Amino acid sequence: MMFRDDPYYIRLVLNGEASAYRGLVEKHQDLVYTIVHRIVTRAEEAEEVAQDVFVKAYHKLSDFKAEAKFSTWLYRIAYNTAVSHTRKKKVEFLAMDEEMIENHSDDEIQQEIMGLSKDEQSALIKSALSSLPRTDSLIISLYYYHGKDLEEISGIVDLSQNNVKVKLFRIRKKLLKEMNNLLDKNINTVA
Amino acid sequence: MIMVTADKNNDGLFKELFRHNGFEKAPTGFADRVMDTLEAEGSMAKESRWSWSGWWLWASIIFAFACLVGVLFFVDFSFMGGIFNGIEIDGSRVTHFVQYIGSGLVSAFEGYSFSSISITIVMAIGALVIADRLLRRKPKMGMNLI
């Protein structure tokens, strides 16, 4: 589906043509849902929170400064809404126990992953992502899957670009080693 | 099997892994549900909403202003004194009461000379300033979605 630039829809909505908001919803719904789902995890709750994000953004649209990027502004709302939802529900953020990580070289792990089928790789990466702290899982997905640059990610999660860069480096390491742990577990289970 | 060039950050590996994996997509009908929620809110807000931006509002302001100018400059109020002749309030004749108000207003501006055009211009500017202040208020987003 082809969409027009965000300012086009924003202008229409602010001029009273509220139905034009659907364009913005359809254009950004997948990424907003992804961001929320990464933080909230339960699909039913994620949908509800993602809807709240769009309703909130609609009401705040007149405050949106045109010089900013609408997508970053919207994703920031999504991230903050999801985080505050988990705080309200007192859901603990998962933290990976780094002591559990076995000490294999990156090359060894990479070789092992490369030997898997696409389906196995898919299951592996999803499983490894679920073991990461939620914001980390979001950051790496935004970077690799959604192709967002450091500037935009820093705007969404409210960290400096340098911080995001350092985090990405650490997340990659964690993820790689978590995938290695999962592979080891699988091998041990089969054996 | 994927071919990945080894690099310091394993960047290539992650690019490949994420490229081949579909992630979350908003559920079917998500946009409809968002728009329904907004529409429901909008119709509730509509009941208490009063828009400042309709053409009819401007037409009313201009019409009211024209009426005011007409009343002030083209109606002869001398008949007013005769209307209340014979009526007494607290022992005073209303004729005198009306005359006091009239002469009071005249004496307040005594010594100043205003043409009807200059008064009209001042009042028009005043009306526009007030309208501008009112219209600059933030737009309410609880509007019709259809």
- Measured by DSSP, the beta-strand proportion of chain A falls in under 5%
Kindly name the structural category of chain A.
Answer: mainly alpha
**How large is the count of helical segments of chain A?**
9
Secondary-structure element order of chain A, N to C: HHHHHHHHH
Approximate shape of chain B: elongated
Order of helices and strands of chain B: HHHHEEHH
User: Could you say what the CATH architecture of the largest domain in chain A is?
Assistant: Orthogonal Bundle
Seen as an oligomer or otherwise, the chain set is heterodimer
**SS element count, helices of chain B:** 6
The chain-level mean pLDDT of chain A equals 82
Q: What is the fold named in CATH at topology level of the largest domain in chain A?
A: Arc Repressor Mutant, subunit A
Percentage of residues in helical conformation of chain B: 55-70%
Q: Measure the end-to-end span of chain B.
A: 52 Å
Number of extended strands of chain A: 0
- Neighbour order of strands in the largest sheet of chain B: 1-2
Distance between the termini of chain A: 49 Å
Number of separate strands of chain B: 2
| Rg of chain B | 34 Å
Give a brief description:
The complex is a heterodimer of chains A (191) and B (146). Chain A has 191 residues and is mainly α.
Describe this structure in words.
- The complex is a heterodimer of chains A (191) and B (146).
- Chain A is mainly α and 191 residues long.
- Chain A folds into two domains: 6-88, RNA polymerase sigma factor, region 2, helix turn helix motif (Rna Polymerase Sigma Factor, Chain: A, Orthogonal Bundle), CATH 1.10.1740; 106-190, Winged helix-like DNA-binding domain superfamily/Winged helix DNA-binding domain (Arc Repressor Mutant, subunit A), CATH 1.10.10.
- Chain A has nine helices and no strands.
- Chain A has helices spanning 6-14, 21-40, 43-60, 70-88, 106-114, 118-130, 134-145, 150-157, 161-190.
- In chain A, helix 2 packs across helix 7 and helix 5 (106-114) crosses helix 9.
- The termini of chain A are far apart.
- Mean pLDDT of chain A is 82; it is low at 92-102.
- Chain B has six helices and two strands, in the order ααααββαα.
- Chain B has a two-stranded antiparallel sheet with strand order 1-2.
- In chain B, strand 1 and strand 2 (92-93) form a beta hairpin.
- In chain B, helix 3 (55-74) packs antiparallel against helix 6 (116-135).
- The longest helix of chain B has 20 residues, at 55-74.
- Chain B is elongated, with a radius of gyration of 34 Å.
- In chain B, 8% of the residues are buried.
- Mean pLDDT of chain B is 69; it is low at 1-6 and 138-146.
- At the A-B interface, helix 2, helix 3, helix 5, helix 6 and helix 7 of A face helix 1 and helix 2 of B.
